[in-house]
# Entry
Amino acid sequence: MATSYAKLSKELVDLLQTKSDATHQQLTQQALIAVSRAEAAEAEASHFAQILRR
Amino acid sequence: MRSGPPASPLSPSVEFRNRLVGETVRAAARESEFYGELYRGLDLTAIETVEDLKILPTVDKAKMVAAGQSALCLANAGPLVAIQNTSGTTGAPFWLYRSLNEQAFIREFFEEWNSRDAAVEGLTPLVLQLVSDRHGMPTGVPSNVFPFPCRLMDRSSVEKAIAILSTEFDIPGAERRVSAITGSHDDLVVLTTYMLQKGIAPASAFQVRRLSPIGRYTTHRFHAFLASTWNCRITQRYSLAEIFGGASWIDDLKAYVFDPFLVPEVLSFSEGAPLVAGVGRLHLTGLRPFSTMQPLIRYRPGDLFEVATGEDGITRHRFLGREAHALFHPRAKEQMLASGLAALEALDPHPEFNRDAYATDLGLSDPTCAGWPRSRGRIELHDQGFTCAIQVETRCDMRLFPEHGERLRHEVRAAFLKAAPALERLVAEGQAQTEVTFSAPGTLAPLERTSDYWRW
# Structure
């Protein structure tokens, strides 16, 4: 299970980060990053890491 | 409104969803008694893209609560490791079951994402995280920030939050000051108001560059108040406890964009058909393996959205409030005349209206500072049309201020109609009338989210 999850995770992240033009890539990154902020009790904000660095 | 296939080329989010949607549906039918029965007779092998979801029936919270554990997928989920719940403000709390495998996958996915993010140069952000009991329980994910959790319960906890914002930290590889705050709308407003009351100017006293309100909708006035007081950007987030993921406000688009690991559909009021452009009921599908043990497929959270797809192929969503707060035509129920936000935004700018109290233990001079105006809508049918009246509770008896009251009524009515063009047209044609009435202090109960705003 762990191996298949690692493979699928890599595939999905690849898809978001590489199979897109610049606009789509930025949008999906912003949307994805924001999840960490709003959903996370322990982590609350990984999207900030990228947004704030831009 | 029009319906049809989404614009091409496919965005990465759509490709991402198409990769997962088929197995999401088929696994639910295979492993869950409820979905197996619900989809009986349907050819699920035909589901290859998000557009194919339209052959499936929809579900809502009442159906899922009634289904109980028969809706769970237990075969491949692994052991139950977390029980979450919705806030319960729309009825009984909805229990949500999270398994070891889906939590493991979420962790795996975000660690993969974060490992690439770590290559980006820059200091790790410090974030003040205001924790709230007033909303559903979220799912934790790994992140590349250092959060400082704080719950605003009493004065000492607010002072703790201020101390965190004031502190210069010395953490290897991290920023020296907190640069962002995330939390519920009410907590952000309460914290800000407390600071102003203490003579603290947030914009100059701290180094916060971003606020992220979650939970309740932030009105235009609250948005402007927070942005100007902190002199920073506001990033609103739409999410619900039931499904992992949500939508983020993207400034450049002036719209929400949904996360890739859930499928948003806006369905028409009349036929329930997916819309490419127009206003309708939001339905969400959580994608496996992000959501595994308790699948929610074409789930209706009770919110209305406007959807549009630009020439760039990007789908934009605009939140319009809860369906229970919207005004529909009394004789044509599929025709929305005013969104749930139309009356709220018309009333909110005016300090004369009573609001619900929050944070009564903090010593605020106005404990209602974060509240919405207390109001209700009322509809009366006539032979030739109908009258819709907004009834709002005032802080004083407005009969003592008749001229001011008349101006206020006029302003609210004009703002309401401006935000509700379909109703405005009916008024112009003489088919409808609108009015604003004042209620004495203490006469209207707080509006629970379940309650229909408009009553007969």
